[in-house]
Every structure is written in structure tokens, then in C-alpha cells.
Amino acid sequence: MAFVGFVLKVDNGILVGAAQVPSENKDERPSGEISLIVLHGISLPEGKFGGPYIKQLFCNTLNCKEHSDFVGLDGLRVSSHLLIHRDGEVEQFVSFLDRAWHAGESTYQGRTNCNDFSIGIELEGTDHIPYTDCQYEVLAHIYRLLRQAYRIKNIVGHSDVAPGRKTDPGHSFLWSHFRAMI
Q1: Buried b vs exposed e over 116-143: b needs ≥16 C-beta within 10 Å?
Q2: Confidence class for position 4, pLDDT limits 50, 70, 90
Q3: N or C: less crowded end of the chain, CB within 10 Å?
Q4: CB within 8 A of 35, min separation 6: which ones?
Q5: Sign of the dihedral through C-alpha 116, 118, 122, 126
Q6: Rounded Cα distance, 116 and 118, in Å
Q7: Residue 56 phi, psi (nearest 5)
Q8: CA-to-CA distance for 160 and 39, rounded, in angstroms?
Q9: Which of 24, 33, 91, 122 does the annotation list as catalytic?
Q10: Is 93:82 a contact under the CB 8 Å cutoff?
Q11: Rounded to an integer, what distance in angstroms lies between the CA atom of residue 164 and that of residue 178?
């Protein structure tokens, strides 16, 4: 199974077993609080899986002239803590102790700026293509590690913290299936 060997180092916020791909698109958490996970879905170009483009986007090396889907991404500085690929492989871009730039303008239970207190996890996928069993298994395992280490209170979709602006992880993410696993 892809997540065998994952260990969370609480003191530095690193998921051992994940490929470490440092992103500059981060800063300090204002309060140090980590109480929420925001789940995202991403593919670049839309509906295409397995290429280098998500990593390039999070590391500011994406050539936005390479594909018409990338035009609106020029100059965008975003990141996520983790990316779970369709085969279950995991890349970590930002330590959990730092603030990744994943949720944008967002609100959760009356609190704004969800990046301040959340961990962003990207699933390689789209709103309309089912996520893989392997992704659910890896996500459930990582969720359990994070919940124990950081006292995570909830996991929600990007669409829940930025309604009207974002739709991911979309209808293709089976929340009931995931919740049964955790």
C-alpha cells in the first residue's frame, strides 16, 4: 500500500515517506493553530493526470504559455501542504507548521482566512472524474495522523470554505465513503 511507512514528525511538520518538494509560497501561521483540513481537487491541464504541472505551479516554475489552460495562472503564487497523486504517491510542499497558500479568500464557521489555521491537501483529480481507491486510503491514513498530532477538528472541501468561488473536490469525491474509512 502506498502509505506504508508514513510517519508524521510533529516538531518540524514533515510527513516522512512523502517526497519533499519545498515551495516558496508559504509564510508563518499567525497563531500557530492547526484545527482544520481543507481538501482540494486539482489537475493541470484540466482532466489530465500524471504530468509535472501541479508541482511546477506550486514551485513557481510553470510555463504558462505551454498550454491554453495555464493562461490564467500566470503570476499566481499558490501552494498546498500535500498533493496525493492518483497512484497514492504523496508530495509535501509546505511543512504543516507553516501557512500554505491554498484556500484563498475563505471562511469557516465565521472565521476568515482559513489558511491561517488549516492544512491544505490536494487530490489529483477533477470535480467530475472519480478519485481512486488508493487516494482515499492514503488520505484516510494521513488524516488520522494529522488529527492525532494537531487536534484537527474537521475536514472540509474547498467548496465549503469558498462557496460560489470554488467547487472542489467536487461531486466525484465521495464524502460518505471517506468518512466511513476514518
Answers
A1: bbbbbbbbbbbbeeebbebbbbbbbbbb
A2: low
A3: N
A4: 117, 118, 150, 151, 152, 153, 154
A5: negative
A6: 6
A7: -65, -40
A8: 9
A9: 122
A10: yes
A11: 24
